[in-house]
Amino acid sequence: MCFRQFYSKFQFKCWHPDDDENVELMHQISINDHHHVAHGDQSLAGPSIGSIINQHSASEGHRNRLKLTYNTQLPSEHTYLGKLERVEALERLEPGSIHRIPVSGHQSIVYPGETIPLILTNPLLEFDGSDSNRIGLVFWEFPHKKRIFGVICEVYEKVVRDSIMVLKTKAQQRFELVPQEDGALTRSVQREGRAHYYAQVKILPEVLLPDPLTNYCMNNTAKTNNLARNRLMAAQSSVWPKFVYDQYCSHEVLNKMKRFLEFLQIESVPTADPVMLSFWLAKNFPLSDTDRKELFYTNSVLTRMLLVNSFLDYTCSCCCKKCNRRIANYADMFAMSKHGVSGSYCNPSGFVHETLTVYRVIPQSTRTTTKPSTDFSWFPGYSWQIAVCNACSNHIGWKFVATKRGYKPKKFYGLCAETISVSSDSRSPPFRTNPKSITDMV
């Protein structure tokens, strides 16, 4: 039974043509596990995210280890960029509409809702009139079916210093590049000896399909205040058994998500907005590059949620992308920022690093190559050192050490998504850990 058959059965007028692709994707997830098989000879250690959050519900040790004394608001403010000026907010663009905006290439996939700091040596936003506070980040390295995608970022703070533009932006809407009359995807405009690139983009929709069983029982006079009971009663009076409906329901992933947030002690999550919540989950759960692309390209919010749910039952580790040496386990990830375990930060050269924070790395897997420095620190109150893989000397991130007394954790690592790969194995055994060793660590 597929999505189209299911929703047409109850005459829900919410099917989108692009969901044919989602059907193929969901069937592929259920039968293809090769995306989740680790490459290389090293065995993977560590539990699945699902087993972590399930065990957390009954584990006082996990709650103790995540009691940070650090203000997680600070990293999200990107104070290392200096003082910036606030700008007016813009209206969201209509899905399906086509717009001409300035664009810039980006090395990784960015989901709507993310905060992206930018340092541009080419102030292309100054010449774009009404859209002067919008910029499109294009994912040239991640084409999908010969199409190029990206995300529109709205500028909310900016300043120009010596022809360098410093921005704080918020990713808002996904888009697809629209070829121009001559087939070109971008146009360059020369101003003051510099090339400014523009492109026509088509805003992609976010299709929110309702829970079919909930809608089926909305007019049932016998319904109660218990949602689970209502769904069970509705299933008993419908054609299909309840497990069929559950395949198209996001309740399971929402329950796991709530335990996951308790585990990380994160409160600033857009739980009231299913669209933004689906993107937050995609950003903060361990995913391979292939999985990240699948989640970005689908227009269906429900499909995105169900895909995330299918990834929760796999063991995950961070490995060096160059030599495949295991660097860290996802059991040691934590939220150093109020926005989650993963965030984007900009270095003085303007390169944006997507960074995952973990309490510790595998012993003897890394070494530092520089002296501690507090200059341009993404985490105020912590010094940083460049960390490399012990096996191949590939840059894998940074080691951060507290420079003030009372800060917990005393040290942690920020792993660079560009040089770290996510390796996944089969379903793992229940989570086991020693709370004392974690307490000593922080």
Q: Quick check: average pLDDT? A: 77
Largest sheet: 6 strands, antiparallel
The number of helical segments is: 13
Stretches with pLDDT under 50, minimum 5 residues: 1-23, 29-46, 57-64, 427-442
Radius of gyration equals: 23 Å
Task: Estimate the helix proportion, in percent.
Answer: 25-40%
Say how many strands there are: 17
Which class best fits the helix and strand makeup?
alpha+beta
Which series of helices and strands comes N to C?
Answer: HHHHHEEEEEEEEHHHHHHHEEEEEEEEEH
Question: What spatial order of strands do you see in the largest sheet?
Answer: 11-12-16-15-14-13
The rough form would be described as globular
Report the end-to-end length measured between terminal Cα atoms.
Answer: 50 Å
Protein name: CULT domain-containing protein
Keywords: Metal-binding, Zinc
InterPro entries: CULT, Yippee/Mis18/Cereblon
Domain CULT: 315-424
Summarize the structure.
The protein is of the alpha+beta class. The protein is built from 13 helices and 17 strands.
